[in-house]
Amino acid sequence: MQQTAAVDSSADSLVFVDQAGNHHTLVPGHRGALRPGWRRMMHNEPRPPATRESVLSELRELASRVRLGGRLLEVFGCPIEGRRVLNVGCGCGEEVLYLAGRGASSVVGADLVIPDDAVLDAESKGIWDGPAGDGSSLRCRLARAHLAELGQLERVNLADIRIVTDDIAVSAFDDGEFDLICTWRTLEHLKRPEAALREMFRLLRPGGYAYHEYNPFFGIDGGHSPATLDLPWGHVRLGEADVERYLERYRPDEKTRAMAFYRDELNRMTIGDLERMARAAGYEVLAIVPRARTEDMLELTGEIYRQARGIYPQVEINDLVCRIVRVVLRRPE
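The structure corresponding to this sequence follows.
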């Protein structure tokens, strides 16, 4: 397997000069600190063998996300219980299970591609059977056990659950089919976020709600594994041509894949853009809650802020210091 070139530790190589003449001091290991799993993603390395503790840790995090989303929705009068829910970007389907565990009457998980290791079987609509019908797999067994521990398993078994392939920018679902639409770690990857928000508005019944939690491009880790450089906010401070030059110099074996991800898999939607798009689609914007980290604010400098705005004039401080943004929207009656 080809390995990623290490950053040369000589003094000259630790300074990258962009096309505007700005000198950027590299921080070796910066990406690894922000994205510990980058190597597996970049080199298609298989996941480490699943252990009971590693799977349970992932499931607890997923359950926590759904619980937090449910709490914010409750604040605005929309408990998950009894709702017809669409989970966009459902991935392997665990969030579908935890939405059902919170009492949703039905949950549809939708994604462009359903992974082979999904815990739900799109063909048979079986709750616990994966594609090979292996209902006794470790992940499925632990999900069942965790839901039982939370006192939610009976609700999951009673709910109408399925997963389907669907493009949310041009969805095949009917008008007003859902009471609630939820996404986690999805909005930043939509190639057409404005179209997707309009489609989700169409799919909601009047008075329906949407909840989104996403990892925006402009956060310090918003380049995700492929486009996070060993330079704080490097993916934001450098324009496309300079990002390509950086990759050519320091990560030539990653360049093709990283540039494709940088160009095509991450949109440049600011928090302000999201609010504007949501209002233009017809939503009431009930809450936009950016999660700022103290360590990111301490890392940010006036120079970084000016360089970022030189490339992206619409960027604000909140865009740079927030790794997670949570949003509650409502379709008016």
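The mean pLDDT is 90.
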